[in-house]
Specification:
The protein is α/β, with parallel strands linked by helices. It folds into two domains: 2-106, Enolase-like, domain 1; 121-338, Enolase-like C-terminal domain (TIM Barrel, Alpha-Beta Barrel), CATH 3.20.20.120. Helices cover 32% and strands 23% of the residues.
Length: 354
């Protein structure tokens, strides 16, 4: 008979991460452990990547629901989408844990050439919001490390300083040398967004992510129609779980891209629904992590590889924390690899189950 337990964990940032929503010093996350009482030493581990202030399931009864899932795990009623439709991060964690258990608890969630160490995933280099000097230093380091796609968080410092930084990059590197993505995290107002996007378009950017806050469909639709830069939806997808609502959103707004964070959009199954609808509407996409530990990042990376999307993915967050778990994931230049000969170090996590 299946059994399950859970625990909360706080990931500590090595360097505080700046976004338009504020400075991040730590990231709360939750783990779910699933095992069969016949072989209790084989444990499937999933990460319920709750993101406070952003996740649709950031609500007071979150732990209560997680406890309910664990207590009812053998009944299978929470394996169905309807049981967790309002708790996307728990659904995500449960998907990982059950797949991990099925594959003998070795953290091989989606076996492939990637998990054999024979292939890699190209990723973008993430530039956090900070002072002009700090962001410039971050950019220089990423370029030196071999990244050919960088993503800049914008919207927290003076816009003219951000323009200045882009001007410096483009002075040295053309669009053929470096792909630049910018992420506003909803920082622009509907009144000035188009004008700011027009200024940004001078620098031959790949795209701008979520220029205005989510929930303003009319305004976002107009932006996607008139923007000289391709627009990618991110936060706009959060809290939209029914297929007909997903279809309506994409058919109405008509973005050029969508960005999939499995922790926030109901796991792999929820993400694959978005991908199917996006393809039907000729909308491109890529995958990013949402500040999960290496448990969640590992599962997302393995799944992403199976999708055969040649675009740069947003999976470079594994090195952000001082108390992450040693894993087979590693970066070589701009490529994320998996070293199958390397062991996981999960002693602390497994010794402190609830």
């Amino acid at each position: 008979m299946l059994k399950a337990s859970y625990k909360k964990y706080f990931l500590k940032f090595k360097t505080p991460g700046g976004t338009s929503r504020g400075i991040l010093h730590e990231k709360e996350t939750w783990f779910i452990f699933v095992y069969d009482d016949v072989n209790p030493e084989i444990i499937g581990i999933g990460e319920c990547g709750l993101f406070r202030g952003l996740s649709a399931d950031d609500r007071p009864d979150y732990e209560e629901k997680l406890k309910e899932v664990c207590e009812s795990i053998s009944a299978k009623k929470f394996w169905k989408e309807e049981g967790l439709i309002e708790f996307p991060s728990i659904k995500f964690g449960l998907e990982i844990a059950l797949l991990d258990l099925k594959n003998i608890g070795k953290r091989i969630i989606f076996p492939s050439e990637f998990t054999k160490g024979k292939a890699s995933i190209p990723i973008n280099g993430l530039i956090w919001m900070d002072s002009f000097i700090s962001m410039k230093d971050q950019v220089n380091k990423k370029l030196k490390d071999g990244f050919r796609c960088i993503k800049l968080k914008i919207g927290a410092i003076d816009f003219n300083e951000e323009i200045r930084l882009l001007k410096l990059i483009r002075r040295e590197f053309s669009e053929n040398d470096i792909e630049i993505r910018v992420d506003a995290n909803g920082a622009f107002s509907p009144d000035d967004a188009l004008e700011k996007i027009k200024r940004l378009s001078d620098f031959k950017l790949h795209s701008i992510e979520q220029p205005i806050k989510s929930g303003q469909q009319k305004e976002m639709t107009q932006l996607c129609l008139n923007s000289p830069l391709p627009i990618a939806l991110d936060e706009e997808l959060i809290g939209i779980f029914k297929i007909n609502e997903k279809q309506k959103l994409l058919e109405t707004i008509k973005p050029q891209y969508i960005i999939l964070k499995p922790s926030l959009v109901a796991g792999f199954s929820g993400s694959e629904e978005w991908i199917k609808i996006a393809k039907e509407n000729k909308i491109s996409w890529w995958v990013t992590s949402a500040l999960e530990s290496n448990i969640g990042l590992n599962a997302i990376a393995q799944w992403t590889f199976t999708l055969n999307n040649p675009a740069f993915q947003g999976l470079g967050t594994g090195g952000l924390f001082i108390n992450n778990f040693d894993s087979p994931l590693y970066l070589q230049g701009q490529n994320l690899f998996y070293a199958p000969e390397k062991s996981w170090n999960l002693k602390e996590l497994l010794n402190k189950q609830s």
